[in-house]
Amino acid sequence: MSGAPRLEAIWIKPVRRGPMAPAGAAALVAGKGIVGNANQGGTRQVTVIEREVFDLIRATLPAAEPVMRRANFMVSGIRLAHTGGQTLTVGAVRILLQGETCPCHCMDEQCAGLTAALEPDWRGGAYGIVLDSGQVTVGDAVSLDPPLSG
Asked: H or E element: which one contains 126?
């Protein structure tokens, strides 16, 4: 992975099963999620994918675009595999990662073969809950902290 880890893209889903809208910035509310996003509360307040994973996928599926994964954030320079329990910091906002976002059959509706390409080793990304309210902007620094020992 090259360059400093950063937030590469933001997408907001205004309605369930609706199209993902690109955004340059997003407001997050602790315990709820992204302002204007259909998913509020619960454990899937924010979903995150890796740019490097999509670079690999596009080598075999050139029609695949990151927005097709229907995630909220795309980061670079951070490996998301097996990060449940770890904290992803985006700008000044912390997201407690809960687990792997498993791809569903809807991925193939957008690009044949995308579901299978996303299945191995957390390629579908991770999901989590928002710990801090605040604003994030494309280009913000990202970091991954180990789980808190208790």
From this structure: strand 126-130
Q: What is the pLDDT of residue 149?
A: 60
Lookup: tokens for 50? 């890796």
Alpha-carbon gap, residue 69 to 74, rounded angstroms:
10
Q: Is 150 exposed, middle or buried (0-12, 13-18, 19+ CB in 10 A)?
A: exposed
What is the dotted CATH code of the domain comprising 6-145?
2.40.33.20
Rg of the chain over all Cα atoms, to the nearest angstrom: 14
Q: Is 109 left (phi over 0), alpha (psi -120 to 50) or beta?
A: alpha
The number of angstroms, rounded, from the C-alpha of 39 to the middle of its chain's C-alpha atoms is 13
The tokens describing 54, both together, are 């999509």
- Count the residues in the chain: 150
SS3 call for 19: coil
What is the largest distance, in Å, between two alpha-carbon atoms of the chain?
Answer: 45
What pTM, to 2 d.p., does this model score?
Answer: 0.93
| pLDDT means over runs of 10, the chain (150 residues) | 87 89 98 94 95 94 92 96 96 96 85 92 95 98 80
Instruction: List b or e across 6-18, with b for residues whose CB sees 16 or more CB atoms inside 10 angstroms.
Output: bbbbbbbbeeeee
